[in-house]
């Protein structure tokens, strides 16, 4: 499109202005004939029309030129070099896409609110109750959780209070620290949908949920460390994974799909073992699966369980255990192309993952041959497979770093507090708890991981309310791309 130079526009304006002056002078002359006045008037009108037309055409040209520039931005630049050209990706939004699910998880109480009676009725399913009053935490324990899940979950919330002092509102919540979601939709929906009297589900926080449940999904304990199996806090481990990825490029890694874990946790994991190469060499499905013997690892001080050393394969498999697995973030962070076997359960961030962008989807009723087909396709389309691995690790590094985890917690708890229809108070059997009081009572790896993940006040500000509400939503980038087309 041709842009109209500023000099031309100035000349047109001057010409038009001159025509208007002539018409005015003619009109002022007392002896002007009607024909002379008409000619002058028509001349001024004509120049005015010409001037307006030029302005309109210039504006349209500029508009289309801008749209063309936007479109060109989405096209990789041509290059004569042999270097692989990466497709253009719009800048990542400040606000991770999965934050939108906060409202989805809280929708059952959006109109009816949360009463103290609802929380009391949910205590029999929870491991602990946590109350925050004026920035101070109080915990009432109901039953011991598996290993130290409850301790590190409470520790994470205490770090949030430390990170954003005077920013966390008064709260009263109950938390379930085991694997399966507790609040089933069918238990709280009346068969007669016109009668909503039974629609009073207790608001229980947990680590995962599914389409049939109403549990409020919260970051799991392993973000602050899993002492029993020597998995470090996320703020340390993510950095080690990122640095480890630089040691071996994707193209130089073993061209197989890798998985290592406890195969006794689910039938799907047990079946996955069958995809290893046949002992007699008669079959090879490009899969390398290893059973993790945690008892032996613990006895020998974890010689084979350093996650940062397990990124030596082009492809890594995610498969659920008893329910969901905390391993998804570690697998995605490896810079390998992730193969995610269909999951029934979701954690707080996985709803922001996009198939064929962040991972290769694998059906739940997969066969060894179907995994082999995905790996073979990736090995024959290495640039595409490499890009999926890069996108997955970029998602984890930018949108799931520990600061974003705290942001998610911050906004989830703030939105939850808005639903409370009562003023929280300290439960009768609750005890005041702080970072110092918790850490001082611990030893070994538990204390070490707490110290390694301990935060100082005001390290970073949380995302603003506007960012959280979706101004920075990922869909903006997608919409811009569609508009440009």
TrEMBL record:
The chain crosses the membrane at residues 39-60. Keywords: Membrane, Transmembrane, Transmembrane helix. It comes from the Eukaryota. Residues 167-423 form the Glycosyl transferase CAP10 domain. The keyword Transmembrane helix applies. SMART domains: CAP10 (SM00672). PANTHER family: KDEL LYS-ASP-GLU-LEU CONTAINING - RELATED (PTHR12203), OS04G0534100 PROTEIN (PTHR12203:SF99). This is Glycosyl transferase CAP10 domain-containing protein.
């Amino acid at each position: 499109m041709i842009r109209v130079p500023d000099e031309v526009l100035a000349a047109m304006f001057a010409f038009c202005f001159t025509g208007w002056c002539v018409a005015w002078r003619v009109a002022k002359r007392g002896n002007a004939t009607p024909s002379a006045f008409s000619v002058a008037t028509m001349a001024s009108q004509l120049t005015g029309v010409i001037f307006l037309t030029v302005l309109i055409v210039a504006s349209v040209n500029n508009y289309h030129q801008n749209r063309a520039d936007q479109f060109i931005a989405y096209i990789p630049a041509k290059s004569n070099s042999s270097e692989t050209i990466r497709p253009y990706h719009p800048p990542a939004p400040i606000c991770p896409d999965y934050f939108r699910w906060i409202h989805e998880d809280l929708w059952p109480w959006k109109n009816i609110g949360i009463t103290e009676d609802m929380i009391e009725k949910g205590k029999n399913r929870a491991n602990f109750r946590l109350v925050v009053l004026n920035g101070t935490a109080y915990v009432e324990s109901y039953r011991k959780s598996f290993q130290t899940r409850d301790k590190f979950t409470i520790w994470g919330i205490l770090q949030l209070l430390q990170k954003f002092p005077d920013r966390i509102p008064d709260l009263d919540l109950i938390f379930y620290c085991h694997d399966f979601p507790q609040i089933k939709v069918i238990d709280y929906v009346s068969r007669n949908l016109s009668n909503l009297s039974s629609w009073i589900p207790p608001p229980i926080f947990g680590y995962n949920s599914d389409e049939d449940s109403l549990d409020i999904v919260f970051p799991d304990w392993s973000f602050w460390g899993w002492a029993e199996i020597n998995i470090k806090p996320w703020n340390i481990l993510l950095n080690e994974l990122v640095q480890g990825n630089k040691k071996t490029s994707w193209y130089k890694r073993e061209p197989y799909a890798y998985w290592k874990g406890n195969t006794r946790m689910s039938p799907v994991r047990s079946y996955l073992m069958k995809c290893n190469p046949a002992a007699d060499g008669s079959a090879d499905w490009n899969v390398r699966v290893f059973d993790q013997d945690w008892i032996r690892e613990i006895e020998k001080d974890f010689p084979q369980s350093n996650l940062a050393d397990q990124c030596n394969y082009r492809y890594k498999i995610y498969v659920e255990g008893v329910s969901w697995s905390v391993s998804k973030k570690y697998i995605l962070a490896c810079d390998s192309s992730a193969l995610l076997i269909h999951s029934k359960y979701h954690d707080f961030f996985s709803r922001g993952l996009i198939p064929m962008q962040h991972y290769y989807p694998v059906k739940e009723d997969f066969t060894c041959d179907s995994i082999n087909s995905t790996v073979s396709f990736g090995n024959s389309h290495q640039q595409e497979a490499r890009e999926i691995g890069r996108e997955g690790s970029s998602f984890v590094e930018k949108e799931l770093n520990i600061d974003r985890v705290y942001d998610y917690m911050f906004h989830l708890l703030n939105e939850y507090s808005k639903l409370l229809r009562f003023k929280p108070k300290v439960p009768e059997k609750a005890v005041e708890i702080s970072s110092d009081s918790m850490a001082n009572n611990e030893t070994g790896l538990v204390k070490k991981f707490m110290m390694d993940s301990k935060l100082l006040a005001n390290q970073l500000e949380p995302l603003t309310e506007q960012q959280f509400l979706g101004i920075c939503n990922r869909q903006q980038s997608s919409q811009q791309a569609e508009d440009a087309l």
